[in-house]
Specification:
The complex is a heterodimer.
Chain A (H helix, E strand, L loop, with lengths): L1 E2 L10 H13 L9 H21 L6 E4 L2 H15 L6 E5 L4 H12 L3 E5 L9 H7 L4 E7 L11 H8 L6 E5 L9 H4 L6 E5 L10 E5 L14 H4 L7 H16 L1 H19 L5 E3 L11 E6 L4 H9 L3 E2 L1 E2 L2 H4 L6 H5 L4 H4 L2 E5 L6 H22 L1
Parallel strand pairs in A: 1-11, 3-4, 3-5, 5-6, 6-7
Antiparallel strand pairs in A: 2-8, 7-8, 9-10, 10-13, 12-13
Helix pairs in contact in A: 1-9, 2-9, 3-4, 5-6, 10-15
Chain B lengths: L4 E6 L9 H15 L7 E4 L3 E5 L5 H8 L5 E10 L3 H15 L4 E9 L8 H15 L3 E3 L6 E8 L2 E5 L3 E5 L7 E6 L5 H11 L2 E9 L6 H14 L6 E7 L1 H10 L5 H19 L4 E3 L12 H8 L6 E2 L7 H10 L3 H4 L21 H8 L4 H10 L2 E5 L10 H7 L1
Parallel strand pairs in B: 5-6, 5-7, 10-11, 10-13, 11-12, 13-14
Antiparallel strand pairs in B: 1-3, 1-4, 2-3, 4-8, 4-9, 7-8, 12-15
The chains are: A alpha/beta, B alpha/beta.
Subcellular location (chain B): Cytoplasm
Family (chain B): Belongs to the ThiI family.
Keywords (chain B): ATP-binding, Cytoplasm, Nucleotide-binding, RNA-binding, Thiamine biosynthesis, Transferase, tRNA-binding
C-alpha cells in the first residue's frame, strides 16, 4: 500500500502507540486527584507540556491541550470573539481557511460579527497589504492558516506579522495544523503571533488530541467550562495517554525536521516533474518556497476528482480529492474556487500529501500508475 | 568563540581589609561548588582577581553558573595566545569581528605583567588600534564610553585578550557573614528572603515544618525543590525538616482560636532557635513582610519575638508583594511557590486571627500546653538532608517519564 493522504491523517507511530498503551495501563489516574497516584499523572502531564514547550521554544504556560485542530480553531476564533466583544466585532481572515475556521466565522457572522474574507492570488496566498487595508478600529482578530490544506501554499505570515506590529491589541491567530514540522517554524513562531493551532494526528500522534499555543498575557474566553483544567481555560479530564503520545510524536517529528523536509520535497518533486508536462494536467502546487514540501494538488481535465481517487485506490495507492473534510460532500474545492479556478477544472482536482516516511520508489510507482491511468482516461476526455 | 580563561573581578570584598584573604578563599570554594560537575575547570583565587582556567570546558555553561555566585562584580572571558605579536593581531581582529557593527567605537586597554615581551603598553595600544582600524571599514577610536573595549594582558605564560565583560551577582560570598537558619515555608516570600540573605554572605540552613497528614508529601517536596533552586547560588544547602503535627494538634485543642497562630509561631521560633544554637547559627531569617498577613504586624512580631533574644532578620520586611514577586520570578522560584499545596502555616488558620495579639495573654494561653515536652519531642524527630544543585524532588518520576516521551 502506498499512502499519500497524510494531510487527512497519519499513521500513529509505533513508539507513540507504545507510550499511549503504557500510560493507559500504568498512569491512568486523574491528574486532578489529590492522592499520589493522581499526582503521578499530573507530573507526567506537566512534563509532556514542558517537552512540547521546549521543542517549540516557548513557555510551559503557553501550551494548552485540546481535542485537536478543529477545537483549537473554534476556540481561538470564538474565544477571541467572546473575550473582546466589548472592544469590537470585526474579524479578518482569508478565503481559503479550513472549515474549522471558516464555519466558526460564519457562526459569528450570524451573531452580528463582521467578517472580512481576504482574496488570494493564483497561488492561494493572501497579501499583507490586503490585511493592512482591511484593518479597522474595531478589528479584534486576524486569523490566517500557515499552510493551505488543499494546495499547500504558505501564507506570508512574516509580512502579516509586520503589519500587525502596529496593532498590538488585535489577536493574531495562525492555524498551523498543516505547517508543523515542514521547515517553516520561523514563519509560524514569528514575533507577533498570539495563538497557534496544532493537531496531533497530523504528525503521527493519536486522534483526538491537539494543542494551542497562547502567548503569555493574551486572553481568550474558554469554550469548555467545568472542572477548571488547563488553568481554567479548557475544562475536561485530560487525555493523558494521548498527550504523552503527542509529546513523543512531536519530538520525533522535529528531531530530523530538515532531513524529513528534504525527503518530502524530493518525493514530491519526482511526481511533480513527471506529471507536469501532460497536456491535460493542471498543477496547483509548485516546487518553490511559496509551497509546503508535502502537498501536491493537480487536476486531470475532464475526469472527476473522485474518479481519479478510486482509480488509484484500485492500485493500492491512496490519495484524496482536495480535502478529506469536504470530499464526501461532492463539493468543488473552496480553495481552488478562491484561486479563481473554473469549476470544471477544480472538480477534477486531487491532492497527494506526503509524510517523512514516503520514498522515491513510491513516487516512481505512483508515476507508473499515473501513466497507465492517463492513457485510460483519454478514452473519456479526449 | 571558545575561550581559554575567565577573569573574575571581586565585588565589595576588595574593601574588607584583613578579612580579605578568607573572603577570597571562601569565594573560590563557592565557585568550585557551583562548578563541581565540570572538573576540567581550575579555579585560581588570586588576591586581586580570580582566574578560571577552562581547559576545554564549555565557556557559556561556566559563565552561566558564575553569574549566580555572590561576591563577583563582573567577569570577562578571554582567549589565550602564545607570546607572538602576529597571533595577538589576528586574535584581536577575530574578537572585534564578532561584535562589529558599522560606525562603532572602540579602544584598546593593555596591561603588562611581563615586561620582556616586545611592545610597551603604550606601543601595544597604538599598534593594535592601527590593526583594527585597518581591518574594519567603519570603526573609530574613542577613549571614553566606547562601544567595545579590547583588553589585552601580557603575562609570562601568554597573552590574554578579552572584549566582553558581564555583570556578576554582586553581594558578598556566601558564608562570609556566618551561618543563619532560614524558616522556609514554601510560599513566595521565604525563598526570596533566603536569596537576599545569601546575597549578603549568609550561609543559610533551611528549617521547614511539616505536619502530616495535615500537610502533604508534596508540600515537603516543594520546599526541598525550592531549596534545590537556591543551591544555584551556593553549591549546596542543608535542609532540616521538623515534625510539627503534634504541636499543632495540641495548640488547636487547647489554645483559643484567636491566639492559635501566635502560639504556633512562637513554637516554630523556639525550635528554630534550638536548632541554631545546636548548629552554631548566629541568627534566624524569615520571609515576613510588614503588614502582609496577621502574623506580620508589629504587635504579632513583638508577641512572637518574645521567646528569644537571638536576632531575627527579615530581608523582605519592607518590600511590597509585587516587589517580592519580581525577585521570585528573577530567581525562578515563583512558579514553584505558587503550586497549591497546603503548608503548615495555612492549615488550622483561624478565620479571624488576632492581628494585635496581647503579649501577656499570649504567654498565659501558652501555659496550657507542655512547651518543653513538645519541643523536645519535635527536636528528636528532626531529619537533615544535604541538597545539591540539580537535584529534583517534586517530579521524581522524571527519568521514568523520559522513556515514555
Amino acid at each position: 500500500m502506498i499512502y499519500f493522504d497524510n494531510s487527512a491523517t497519519t499513521k500513529v507511530a509505533p513508539s507513540v502507540l507504545e507510550t499511549y498503551s503504557k500510560v493507559s495501563q500504568t498512569i491512568w489516574g486523574n491528574p486532578s486527584s489529590l492522592h499520589n497516584f493522581g499526582e503521578q499523572a499530573y507530573n507526567l502531564l506537566e512534563q509532556s507540556r514542558q517537552q512540547i514547550a521546549d521543542l517549540l521554544g516557548v513557555k510551559l504556560s503557553e501550551i494548552l491541550f485540546t481535542s485537536g485542530g478543529t477545537e483549537g480553531d473554534n476556540w481561538v476564533v470564538k474565544g477571541t470573539a467572546m473575550e473582546k466583544r466589548a472592544f469590537g466585532r470585526h474579524i479578518i481572515t482569508s478565503s481559503v481557511e479550513h472549515p474549522a475556521v471558516h464555519n466558526s466565522m460564519e457562526q459569528l457572522a450570524q451573531l452580528g460579527y463582521e467578517i472580512t474574507y481576504l482574496p488570494v492570488d493564483e497561488e492561494g496566498r493572501v497579501s499583507a497589504a490586503d490585511v493592512k487595508a482591511a484593518i479597522r478600529p474595531d478589528t479584534i482578530l486576524v486569523s490566517v492558516m500557515a499552510v493551505n490544506n488543499e494546495v499547500g501554499s504558505i501564507q506570508p505570515l512574516k509580512d502579516i506579522a509586520t503589519v500587525l506590529q502596529d496593532y498590538p491589541t488585535i489577536h493574531f491567530h495562525i492555524d498551523a495544523v498543516q505547517g508543523i514540522g515542514k521547515g517553516i517554524s520561523d514563519l509560524i513562531f514569528n514575533d507577533r503571533v498570539d495563538f497557534i493551532t496544532f493537531s496531533g494526528h497530523k504528525f503521527h500522534a493519536p486522534h483526538g488530541i491537539g494543542f494551542i499555543y497562547a502567548r503569555s498575557g493574551k486572553r481568550i474566553a474558554p469554550l469548555m467550562t467545568g472542572g477548571g483544567q488547563e488553568r481554567n481555560l479548557r475544562s475536561g479530564t485530560e487525555n493523558l495517554p494521548a498527550i504523552a503520545g503527542m509529546a513523543r510524536a512531536l519530538r520525533l517529528l522535529l528531531t530530523n525536521e530538515e532531513t524529513n523536509v528534504a525527503n518530502e520535497r524530493a518525493v514530491r518533486g519526482r511526481i511533480l516533474n513527471h506529471i507536469k508536462d501532460f497536456p491535460k494536467v493542471t498543477l496547483f502546487s509548485q516546487d518553490n518556497d511559496h509551497f509546503a514540501p508535502h502537498i501536491l494538488c493537480f487536476a486531470i481535465e475532464g475526469v472527476r476528482g473522485e474518479t481519479i481517487v478510486h482509480a488509484f485506490e484500485d492500485h493500492d495507492i491512496y490519495i484524496s480529492t482536495t480535502s478529506a473534510c469536504s470530499s464526501k460532500k461532492h463539493l468543488a474545492s473552496s480553495t481552488l474556487k478562491a484561486m479563481k479556478v473554473p469549476d470544471q477544472i477544480s472538480t477534477s482536482a486531487v491532492r497527494v500529501s506526503l509524510d517523512e516516511n514516503n520514498t522515491l520508489a513510491e513516487a516512481d510507482a505512483f508515476n507508473q500508475v499515473f501513466d497507465q491511468l492517463y492513457e485510460q482516461f483519454k478514452k473519456i476526455n479526449s | 568563540m571558545q575561550y581559554d580563561e575567565i577573569m573574575v573581578r571581586y565585588g565589595e570584598l576588595s574593601t574588607k581589609g584583613k578579612n580579605r584573604k578568607s573572603f577570597i578563599d571562601r569565594l573560590g570554594n563557592n565557585v568550585r561548588g557551583v562548578l563541581h560537575d565540570i572538573p576540567d575547570v581550575k579555579v585560581h583565587p588570586d588576591h586581586d582577581r580570580m582566574h578560571l582556567t577552562l581547559n576545554g570546558a564549555d565557556s557559556a555553561l561556566v559563565m552561566k553558573r558564575l553569574s549566580n555566585v555572590f561576591g563577583i562584580e563582573n567577569y570577562s572571558p578571554s582567549v589565550k595566545v602564545d607570546l607572538d605579536q602576529a597571533l595577538v593581531d589576528q586574535q584581536a581582529i577575530d574578537m572585534v569581528k564578532e561584535q562589529y557593527k558599522p560606525g562603532m567605537t572602540f579602544k584598546i586597554d593593555t596591561r603588562r605583567s611581563n615586561h620582556h615581551f616586545g611592545l610597551s603598553t603604550y606601543e601595544m595600544n597604538d599598534h593594535l588600534g592601527g590593526v583594527i582600524l585597518n581591518a574594519f571599514e567603519d570603526i573609530h577610536v574613542q577613549m571614553k564610553q566606547s562601544d567595545l573595549t579590547l583588553r589585552v594582558e601580557v603575562r609570562n605564560n601568554g597573552i590574554f585578550l578579552s572584549s566582553q565583560t558581564f555583570t556578576g551577582a554582586m553581594g558578598m560570598p556566601v558564608g562570609t557573614a556566618g551561618k543563619g537558619m532560614m524558616m522556609l515555608s514554601g510560599g513566595i516570600d521565604s525563598p526570596v528572603a533566603a536569596y537576599l540573605a545569601m546575597k549578603r554572605g549568609v550561609q543559610v540552613e533551611m528549617v521547614h515544618f511539616f505536619s502530616p497528614p495535615y500537610t502533604s508529601q508534596q508540600a515537603l517536596d516543594k520546599a526541598m525543590e525550592l531549596t534545590a533552586k537556591l543551591t544555584a547560588y551556593t553549591g549546596k544547602i542543608r535542609f532540616i525538616q521538623v515534625p510539627f503535627t503534634k504541636i499543632q494538634e495540641e495548640i488547636k485543642e487547647k489554645v483559643p482560636e484567636g491566639y492559635l497562630m501566635t502560639v504556633q509561631r512562637r513554637m516554630m521560633l523556639r525550635l528554630t532557635v534550638a536548632l541554631a544554637e545546636k548548629r552554631h547559627g548566629l541568627g534566624i531569617f524569615n520571609g515576613e513582610s510588614l503588614g502582609q498577613v496577621a502574623s506580620q504586624t508589629m504587635e504579632s512580631m513583638l508577641a512572637i519575638n518574645d521567646v528569644t533574644t537571638m536576632p531575627i532578620l527579615r530581608p523582605v520586611v519592607s518590600m511590597d508583594k509585587n516587589e517580592i514577586i519580581d525577585v521570585a520570578k528573577k530567581i525562578d522560584t515563583f512558579d514553584l511557590s505558587v503550586l497549591p499545596f497546603e503548608d503548615c502555616c495555612t492549615i488550622f488558620a483561624p478565620p479571624a486571627p488576632k492581628t494585635k495579639p496581647n503579649l501577656d495573654r499570649t504567654r498565659e494561653f501558652e501555659q496550657r500546653i507542655d512547651v518543653e515536652g513538645l519541643l523536645e519531642e519535635a527536636l528528636a524527630g528532626v531529619k537533615m538532608t544535604e541538597i545539591h544543585p540539580g537535584e529534583t524532588f517534586l517530579n521524581q518520576q522524571e527519568d521514568v517519564f523520559a522513556e515514555l516521551l
